[in-house]
Amino acid sequence: MLHRPRGDPMSAAPITVVSRPLLLAGHEDRLRAEILTVKAAQFRRLVDECERYRALPLAPAHPDASITYLGAAAANLALAYRLTGQEHYLTELRRWLDVAVGYPHWGKAHLPDHDLDAGWLLHGLGLAYSWAGDALPEPERARLRDKLILQGGRLHEFAVASEGGWWASSYWQNHNWICFAGLATAAYAVAAEHPDARAWSDLAKANFDTVLDLLPDDGSNNEGVVYWRYGVPWLVSYLDVLRWAEGTDWFARSAYLRETFWYRLYQAAPDLERIVNHGDCHDRRSGHSVALYYKLAAEYGIGQAQWLARQVADGFFWREAYESGVRPGVRAEAYQELLWFDPTVAEADPQSLPTSRFFPDLGLVVGRTSWQPDATLVSVKAAPGGGHTAWTASAKLDREHGWTTLNAGHQHPDAGSFVILGHGSYLAIDEGYSSRKRTAHHNGVLVDGHGFVNEDRYHVFENLDRQHTAEVLTTTLDGGWVHTVSEIGAMYDPALGVQRLRRHLVMSPAGTVFTVDECVARDPSAFTWLLQTDNPPAAHGDGRYLAQAGSGCLLVTLLEPVDVHTDVITSTVQANPTSSTPALAIVTEQHTLRRTTGPVTAAVFVTVLEPRAWNDTEAGVSTANIRGRTVHLALGRAGRQEHVALHLDGQSIELAAAAGAAQVRGAGFAARTGPDEMSTP
Q1: Of 89, 434, 579, 634, which has fewest CB within 10 angstroms of its CB?
Q2: Where does the record locate the signal sequence feature (predicted)?
């Protein structure tokens, strides 16, 4: 029995703990001491969040939109009451519980009782039952318990019945992690009174046992940064309750969780506030989870995660809270921030880290010119649907069991596509969230007007033949240079006869991006090279186009081929980012610079992309020289000379030596900068 303080209603004496609350047992007294000292800021966050709830109206009937926020609110209020014993928190908790328990189903528009709403509420209300259930009047406590049993049973039954179908076996997908984590939390909360709930936690444990073995070792996420911040917290939420309930610690076992912060950090924009938005991303800002940064810092001793958490909490938090398209968003995680913050982990800023990194499973190559906010960043990726691990493992599982396990609907047909940020602006962009995903909306290549096979739908990789795979062939990250070669020809319909479509991309230490795209087809075809920008690129003569972007701009020099048709079009991209709220729509407009060849069997597109400040108009000189299978590029501007040599087949290559010029070499790549006079190598 958990006893509330009696007597003076203004008293805030701690409650007497007799029960064994989830995640708190054994260190409640320490936590109460810490909220007055080293966790005072996190406690303030919890208190502020609970105060906010008092002004929020609650619908007596299930709204059309998602109700996930009810679960997080219950957990926040219950923790505040548990730690302080203040009656007003319990009073407010009862108001929220009354509404949530009163809804006959959790979720309305999509899979009621069987998807995200149910997972979120089972977790939040399960914690609330464990932390404050004994303080509720007996009829309310029993009503909450019975609702958890009812909803947990419904979700468990669906998971068993749908094995091999939707989220029950979608091991790389946020729905899987959320629903099973919620189911396990509720199971541990009610198992003492409802022994059948052990079947729920056993099923969740078996699921995550598989998940941890199947997640990529490089920590990358095919769903993109936004779904990373939405889904990955549930992996650690589950491991937390597992460790508490069964004494089983799987944190050390997970290479994915140990590495995944680096994926998030390197997908941060140079200002660290915004994101690189490969994949379905609601916007360019929905990327932070202070709580998750705390947890990864605590479990793996990552000082940079601790540092970034403070940057967000002190500088980015409220803009994220108000502008993020993800709900319930960063404010709802107050209880996790308090529980997961480890004050003993020392902060470390990223300045000493390499400025570039390769994530091989997702074929993701990221480089930036520095860790300063005005840096230039390039991010390019090429991998099969879900990444290499998911692509291979799902094929094996599906073949053995007759299942469908790969649900990579948030990944785009964007193999080989790149994003460029610089001078505080998005310069070469990704489409963001899309309900009908098309290669034409990315920085790629079309063949006779066609993009990747199976495109123009939500889930491009669904039931896709395993021959359709893209890969990174080579990567060089050295001396501030970033070089990568990706092969994406197999992503097109075989009827198009594509024999090679290979992108060579280079970024110099100064931020210049050079691309060379070799296109080869069996029959004469029209190849269309694409560049997406926020604003229409304007022609500036001599094959140059300038795309303005606020504080920055992108100067594009089209070098080869010269005999092409060039135009600029406008595209509208639409999306419904959540099936639980059908009326919610995201509509964006972007502009596409296109250059299209006549029917040819082979073409090589050579392009120089210069990120600049918005008012930087100083002329430069870009040249290209194709000699057999070798492409030489050069850029001279503002006293800076950059030379790049690429071999289209990856053979060894080098540049002529120049006094004072350091050369970097990799497979099929050589580059140097120096004070030498501009010349074509």
Answers
A1: 579
A2: none
